[in-house]
């Protein structure tokens, strides 16, 4: 068995191993360290002697490392000595074969990784690491930061959780929905980083986006009665369905109106629409509404044949439940398509007058497009050039400059 | 994320064994699918009807010739599939090892070719672009 085989087993088993060890030791950081030590051992010993039951091997080895770590602490704490010597400890970990328990463990792991005491960066890193099973190298590559930075975020995150005394358990019913919002937002941050990289020279990082989708699917399977989980999943599936058509052969972005819709992933659209149905049991929340907008695009044969009136209504609803200047800007784009650029320009100018999105390249991008459609070419060109200066993604920037140049 | 198809290949003997222990196997297959769903990797799974009910459309000659199944000399018959979205071939293989399968049957693991591996400038996409240009869409 080679490195890739070890990684494959780890990817499938890591969440339940870390979760079971955390429940057993009550120490999230120790559990994660022990699990990592077990993988390191597997990388050395599996090529020589492949185990008959790789998942079980990892669990046993990680448990042994966790017990070793607790024994090392026993010099200071006798209570832990008793625990480590207690045969009940072994049976406690053997409970992990109870499938209902595993579900709660993995959910708890998601809630701990996305705990509000952590910074957003730490939540993202811990979620990808302990729930997704990604290595520090993979996370660093995804977020364009160095490996030591990722390692520091993970170890600081674990210390913060230990210092705050965060218990390893599902949040109380009342608190759960509120905390679930935090978990969803972390998954959405990971997805958006993958679907439009915030910086660098690549428009898409599909691996990151798909990892977010995988985790959203897991969450939807574990929390089937939460409409917004299905809403987020629907939004991700429907957005990812367009990935195959979103970049040209040279990696440059292809705008929605130029995309060959036959290249969209129709099975992803079907899954997204099915998730949207589940999301709409009690009216749509913010993710469900965004998914409904994505669904309107996904079910249209062309930009012209898109139900823009419905999209305007959905953006108005989104503006009520989750008001934000970005939603306003998107509503302006939809209004431009439904009723014309003049009304849309008024919405954008209001945003500028209130300085609601300072420094964003999106405002001048949209304003430039609207001015171009109104025939105000010199002003349009100036706006698009401003947008290009503000844009951090090289691929997007070159599209903006090309458009500006086309305005003569 | 790449898609992999895990294709069940049974023999007459393993198919007979499957029917004999069907209920037990069905229960463990449902559990297996639930595990796939909770791992976020499940896309689809279907079982095929008896090969004897199928037909073969043969293009050897000038016109397609339809004959009854099964398929001549083939000893192993496709009986169904699982479609997964996973990070690597090794992960697909690891899941394949966990399929509740009957002794004597085989699982074939095949990657679904990705869109980005297809020619980008196919006749179809060039034609579509020309159509849109003539419509004034681009």
Walkthrough of the structure:
With 408 residues, chain A is an all-alpha fold. The relative contact order of chain A is 0.06. Chain A is 72% helix and 0% strand. Among the domains of chain A are: 1-79, Rna Polymerase Sigma Factor, Chain: A; 102-161 and 180-193, Winged helix-like DNA-binding domain superfamily/Winged helix DNA-binding domain (Arc Repressor Mutant, subunit A), CATH 1.10.10; 224-298. The mean pLDDT of chain A is 89. In chain A, helix 8 (136-143) packs across helix 9 and helix 15 packs antiparallel against helix 16. Chain B is of the alpha+beta class. Chain B has one domain: Dimeric alpha+beta barrel (Alpha-Beta Plaits), CATH 3.30.70. Helices cover 34% and strands 27% of the residues of chain B. Chain B is built from 4 helices and 6 strands, in the order βααββββαβα. The radius of gyration of chain B is 20 Å and the shape is flat. Chains A and B meet through helix 1 and helix 11 of A and strand 2, helix 3 and helix 4 of B.
The main pleated sheet of chain A reads as: none
What is the CA-CA span between the terminal residues of chain B? 31 Å
Shape verdict of chain A: elongated
Characterize the largest beta sheet of chain B: strand count, sense, and whether it forms a barrel.
4 strands, antiparallel
Elements of chain B, N to C (H/E) = EHHEEEEHEH
CATH top-level class of chain B: Alpha Beta
| Annotated CATH topology of the domain at 1-79 in chain A | Rna Polymerase Sigma Factor, Chain: A
Biased composition (Basic and acidic residues) (chain B): 126-138
Organism (chain B): Micromonospora pisi
Family (chain B): Belongs to the YciI family.
Protein name (chain B): YCII-related domain-containing protein
């Amino acid at each position: 068995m080679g490195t890739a085989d070890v990684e494959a087993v780890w990817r499938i088993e890591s969440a339940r191993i870390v979760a079971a060890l955390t429940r057993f030791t009550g120490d999230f950081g120790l559990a994660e360290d022990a699990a990592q030590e077990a993988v390191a051992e597997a990388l050395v010993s599996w090529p020589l002697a492949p185990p008959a039951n790789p998942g079980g091997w990892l669990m046993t080895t990680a448990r042994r490392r966790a017990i070793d770590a607790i024994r090392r602490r026993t010099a200071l704490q006798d209570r832990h000595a008793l625990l480590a010597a207690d045969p009940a400890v072994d049976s406690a970990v053997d409970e992990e074969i109870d499938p209902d328990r595993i579900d709660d463990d993995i959910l708890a792991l998601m809630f701990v990784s996305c705990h509000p005491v952590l910074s957003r960066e730490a939540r993202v890193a811990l979620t990808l690491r302990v729930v997704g099973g990604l290595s520090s190298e993979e996370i660093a590559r995804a977020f364009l930061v160095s490996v030591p930075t990722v390692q520091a975020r993970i170890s600081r995150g674990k210390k913060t959780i230990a210092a705050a005394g965060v218990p390893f358990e599902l949040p109380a019913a009342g608190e759960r929905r509120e905390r679930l919002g935090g978990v969803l937002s972390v998954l959405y941050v990971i997805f958006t980083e993958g679907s439009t990289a915030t910086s660098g020279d690549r428009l898409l990082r599909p691996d990151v986006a798909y990892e977010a989708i995988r985790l959203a699917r897991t969450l939807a399977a574990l929390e089937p009665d939460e409409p917004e989980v299905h809403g987020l999943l629907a939004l991700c599936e429907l957005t990812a369905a367009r990935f195959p058509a979103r970049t040209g052969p040279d990696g440059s972005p292809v705008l929605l109106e130029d995309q060959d819709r036959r290249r969209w992933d129709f099975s992803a659209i079907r899954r997204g629409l099915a998730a949207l149905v589940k999301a709409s049991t009690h009216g749509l929340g913010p993710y469900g509404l965004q998914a409904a907008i994505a669904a309107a695009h996904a079910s249209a044969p062309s930009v012209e044949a898109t139900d823009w009136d419905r999209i305007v209504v959905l953006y108005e609803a989104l503006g009520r439940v989750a008001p934000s200047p970005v939603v306003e800007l998107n509503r302006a784009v939809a209004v431009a398509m439904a009723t014309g650029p003049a009304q849309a320009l008024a919405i954008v100018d209001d945003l500028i007058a209130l300085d609601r999105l300072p420094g964003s390249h999106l405002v001048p991008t949209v304003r430039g497009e609207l001015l171009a459609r109104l025939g105000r070419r010199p002003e349009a060109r100036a706006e698009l050039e401003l947008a290009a200066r503000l844009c951090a993604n090289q691929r997007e920037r070159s599209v903006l400059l090309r458009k500006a140049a086309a305005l003569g | 994320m790449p898609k992999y198809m895990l294709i069940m290949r049974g023999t007459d003997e393993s198919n007979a064994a499957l029917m004999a222990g069907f209920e037990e196997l069905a229960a463990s297959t449902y559990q297996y699918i639930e595990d796939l769903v909770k791992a976020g990797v499940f896309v689809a799974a279907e079982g095929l009807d008896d090969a004897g009910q199928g037909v073969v459309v043969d293009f050897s000659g000038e016109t397609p010739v339809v004959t009854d199944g099964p398929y001549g000399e083939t000893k192993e018959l496709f009986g169904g599939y699982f479609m997964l979205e996973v990070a690597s071939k090794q992960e697909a293989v690891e899941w394949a090892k966990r399929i509740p399968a009957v002794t004597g049957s085989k699982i074939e693991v095949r990657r679904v070719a990705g869109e980005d591996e297809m020619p980008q400038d196919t006749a179809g996409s060039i034609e579509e672009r020309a159509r849109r240009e003539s419509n004034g869409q681009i």
